[in-house]
């Protein structure tokens, strides 16, 4: 987000160079406000959920195998 705000401030016409820092800060604030409304998750939250899902998937595979064993033993 910092990089995007910086890029936006760099493409300003030369006459606006004196207000570049203020505009960059405003760009950053607007971007943060808009992104916060998108209901996004942080990279850390994503990684935690990803790890949880991987463990759950592994557990599901194990349980499916166990059910299959029990069904085979019953027959």
Task: List the SSEs and their pairings.
Blueprint: H1 2-10, H2 20-36, H3 43-74
Helix pairs in contact: 1-2
Word description of this protein:
This protein is mostly helical and 75 residues long. The chain has 2 domains: 1-40, no CATH class; 41-75. Helix content is 77%, strand content 0%. It contains 3 helices and no strands. It has helices at 2-10, 20-36, 43-74. Helix 1 (2-10) crosses helix 2. It is rod-shaped and about 85 Å long. The model has no long low-confidence stretch (mean pLDDT 86).
Q: Helix coverage percent of residues?
A: over 70%
> In this structure, how is the largest beta sheet organized?
none
How widely separated are the two ends?
A: 61 Å
Strand content: under 5%
Tally of distinct domains: 2
Order of helices and strands: HHH
Low-confidence stretches: none
Radius of gyration: 25 Å
The helix-and-strand class reads mainly alpha
What characteristic shape results from the CA principal axes?
rod-shaped
